[in-house]
Each structure stands twice: as structure tokens, then as C-alpha cells.
């Protein structure tokens, strides 16, 4: 039961990326409320890090319901003092490339496959048809018989696929999914 609760918490969390220290948490709250209306969420600050000697942090927003979270994700960013801050869904830290914003998804034949089927047994049409249920597929690239990379119209589609399940089944073939930073992002 604790695992289910943890999964629910992860599903209801967003990250506001690269927020400089001059931005107050109250400004984030006000901007979100002006953008999507009166919502309830908690803000937690991440550790400070530097980009070109400027201190930044990530802010973690824990929402009470997924509807409000999805409303903010439709916008994808918030703007404060003419600065734009990207917003993404939280991924578990053990997710490859967790915290990165990317429209690329690496799919691989899973070791859980009981049959001898691999990704090569699926057509590009089969794969695109399945993943189109999450959002628009822009590009498909088969890397080899066991993996391929998909590019989606928006990075949030990739996060939603990963949060749904790290393994998916298409026509009897179990595939594992993870974020990729480029079209040929095999490890």
C-alpha cells in the first residue's frame, strides 16, 4: 500500500526548472493562481545549483488533484518578471534522465519477454499506433532489432508514458521505456 501511495505522490508532483533566487515562492503561487485559477498545492525547494555563477533551484509543486496539475502542464511554463520557467512532471530519481526535459523516448525489448519476440517483431505502424494514444508521434527511428527511439510533439507526453508504466505491451511484445536525450540514445 505504501508503494501505491508513493506512486500517487509522484504522479501529483511537478517541477519548476531553473528558478533563480530572486523569485519568491509567493510569486510562483500567485502566478500559478492567475494562470489556472484558485488551486491548492505545496511548494518544496530543491538544492541550489549554479549555472554560469548564478544560483538556481528547482521547485517541487505537490498538487492535491491531477486535474489542476494537468491544467498547468497544458501551458508548460510560467512567466515571472519577464523570465520563463519550464514546468515538467516529476520522475522518480531512478528513472534514466530523471529531471531532464526531452521529447525523445527510448523503447527496448524487455527482459521480461517470455517468448522469443523482440522489437523487430513489431512494425513501425504497430509502435506508433500504440504510443499515439498518449500524444502525437513526430518521428520513429529503429536503432536495431531490440530498440527504437520515438520523438513526440511535447516533452510532457514522454513523462506521462513513463509515469503510466515503465513497461508496456504491444501485440504480445513487452517493451521497456525510458527518456532519451537524442534520437540514438542507447546506453
Layout of strands and helices, then pairs:
Elements: H1 2-11, E1 13-20, H2 25-36, E2 41-45, E3 49-51, E4 54-63, H3 66-75, E5 77-80, E6 83-89, E7 104-109, H4 124-131, E8 137-142, E9 147-152, H5 155-164, E10 167-170, E11 173-180
Antiparallel strand pairs: 1-4, 1-6, 2-4, 3-4, 5-6, 7-9, 7-11, 8-9, 10-11
Instruction: Tell the overall outline.
Output: elongated
Number of domains: 2
* Element string (H = helix, E = strand): HEHEEEHEEEHEEHEE
Question: What is the overall pLDDT average?
Answer: 88
Secondary structure tally, helices: 5
Oligomerization category of the chains in this entry: single chain
Organism: Rotaria magnacalcarata
InterPro entries: RBD_domain_sf
GO molecular function, one term: nucleic acid binding
Protein name: RRM domain-containing protein
Structure description:
The chain has helices spanning 2-11, 25-36, 66-75, 124-131, 155-164; strands at 13-20, 41-45, 49-51, 54-63, 77-80, 83-89, 104-109, 137-142, 147-152, 167-170, 173-180. The chain is an alpha+beta fold and 187 residues long. It has two domains: 2-89, RRM (RNA recognition motif) domain (Alpha-Beta Plaits, 2-Layer Sandwich), CATH 3.30.70.330; 104-180, Alpha-Beta Plaits, CATH 3.30.70. InterPro entries: RBD_domain_sf (IPR035979).
